[in-house]
Amino acid sequence: MDTIKRLGALTQVELADATGLSTATVSIIVNELVAAGIVATTQVTRSGRRAIQVTLSRGLGLVAGIHFSTRALKVVLADPTTVVASQRLPLPAEHRHDTGMDRAAELIAEMLASIGAPQSELLGAGLGICSPYNPSTDMLAVPGLLRGWDEVRIAESMSRRLGKPVAVDNDANLGMLGESRYGAARNAQSGVFVSIGHGIGAGILYNGEIMRGHDGTAGEIGHVRVVENGALCHCGNRGCLEVMVNSSAIVSSLRNAVGNVTLRDVIAMARQGDLGCSRVISDAAHYVGTALASVCNLVNPEIVIIGGELADAGPILIAPLEASLERNSLHNPLHPPRVEVSDLGEDASVLGAAAFAFDSVAIPVGGTLEALA
């Protein structure tokens, strides 16, 4: 299965070469997977000889999950049970919607071709953006937060490129959806997903449903003020959480001490015992816990999930965040919210986008997508 996902459609002979298994063993395994409906076989001709080609079964069709973060585009193709293809591309800061959407459509076409699937198998797509989205207008809920995307009808634009229906949501909402379906929040009826990287956003699960608010701005904890008269945020306010805790702010605060580093460098150095790097991560955790406290008082979630690039800091981030959350919220020692690092990592939002596509533009099915490698 991993070999087919990685290399695409293969004949049984090619599968034997790629896996090191005998052709007889491959034939037995393929027959079992065909009987289970997991793979499909077709007769093909290779080098003048007839052969049996093996592909992942897609009887219920495929959807695309698309995630535009501030610095990257990630796309997956998924059926109801597994991710069958995945691609990631870096994006420039303040990337334009048109070039990004064009590239996403090109990637989807290339990925469909790589797994031997015709365009007709694509049922639709889910798309996540790193800004609040208003479904009633099909545009950003707050102009100016994602430059180059104002006045764009996002679902309509992407749908026109794909020729398929597209469902759009904020990426933190989709991260929460992904975690509730396939990750740390499975079986939870309430939770908060916080993504910390170039920006900060939160998705809120309440009574099993994603809370979006009347115009799509629910969960925007990145614009909760945590420092009175702090630095100016691009939203126009001062001292927002997103100004105090983002990758640029964290690395900038260390420039005099350790020079030019990336957030990944800071996390690695903190793990190695660097006191300065550990301190700035702890400071970031304090601010996030302060903002989260109000959310927890209002929602009373079962679980708080930390995702995004900073989540890789693990206990260095989680321990002071839990302490800040306890100090600033109504703490119930018998039933405190669990605080955990995302199970899905940087794939939470794109997997949530695929799930959202099945919910919104494809036939509703119960799948797990647990085969993501």
Give me some keywords for this one.
disordered C terminus; alpha/beta; single chain; 3 domains; 5-stranded mixed sheet; Arc Repressor Mutant, subunit A; Nucleotidyltransferase, domain 5
Sum this structure up briefly:
This protein is of the alpha/beta class. About 40% of the residues lie in helices and about 20% in strands. A hairpin with a 3-residue loop joins strand 11 and strand 12 (about 200-205).
Task: Describe this structure as you would to a colleague.
Helix content is 38%, strand content 22%. It is of the alpha/beta class. The strands form four sheets. A five-stranded mixed sheet has the order 6-5-4-7-10. It has a five-stranded mixed sheet with strand order 13-12-11-14-15, with helices on both faces. It is globular.
Form type: globular
SSE string = HEHHEEEEEHEEEHEHEEEHHHHHEHEH
Q: What percentage of residues falls in helices of 4 or more residues?
A: 25-40%
Q: Count of helical segments?
A: 13
* CATH class division of the largest domain: Alpha Beta
Here the CATH topology of the largest domain equals Nucleotidyltransferase, domain 5
Approximately what portion of the residues adopt beta-strand conformation?
15-25%
Q: Strand order across the biggest sheet?
A: 6-5-4-7-10
Main β-sheet, in a few words? 5 strands, mixed
The CATH H-level superfamily of the largest domain is: ATPase, nucleotide binding domain
* Strand segment count: 15
Number of domains: 3
Query: What's the mean pLDDT score?
Result: 88
Structural class of the secondary structure composition?
alpha/beta
